[in-house]
Amino acid sequence: MEKRIQCIMLVDDDPDDNFIHQLVIADWGQCDTVRIAENGTEALAYLTNTADPNYVRPEIILLDINMPGMNGFEFLEEYHKLANHLKSNVVVIMLTTSLNPTDEHRAEQFNEVTGYRNKPLTKAMLNEVMVGHFA
Questions:
Q1: Exposed, middle or buried, 2 (CB in 10 Å: 0-12/13-18/19+)?
Q2: Could you tell me how many helices (H) and strands (E) the chain has, helices first?
Q3: Can you tell me whether residue 49 is helix, strand or coil?
Q4: What's the Rg (C-alpha) of the chain?
Q5: Reading across the β-sheet that carries 113-118, which strands appear in turn?
Q6: Distance of CA 31 to the CA centre of its chain
Q7: How far apart are CA 106 and CA 56, in angstroms?
Q8: Most CB contacts within 10 A, which of 4, 44, 104, 133?
Q9: 124, 132 in Cβ contact below 8 A?
């Protein structure tokens, strides 16, 4: 694959999942930067603080559902309200342990969500995202 992902953002409160997912992304070898937010509030703060010298615009957001403070669905409600230049061409994938069909159906109601996957993240999932959205 010729295309490289500049940044993937993990929005998940589980440090073990974040650690494993960072290892998978590093082993995949197609991403330059990984940013982590432990809840929706942190993710929104990062996404809107484009003047920060450490800001790298995510091309992919991997979003958990169950998080303290602001969960994945609450994040999506606020993310939907962001200016288009902050969210255009960003692929948002729900990455969760939830097997509840209601959660998957709810995720489909957000135009910004392009996929729903169960943890753990795999290189095959990342390859599917690349082919489906960046080919």
A1: exposed
A2: 6, 5
A3: coil
A4: 14
A5: 31-37, 5-11, 60-63, 91-96, 113-118
A6: 13
A7: 29
A8: 44
A9: no
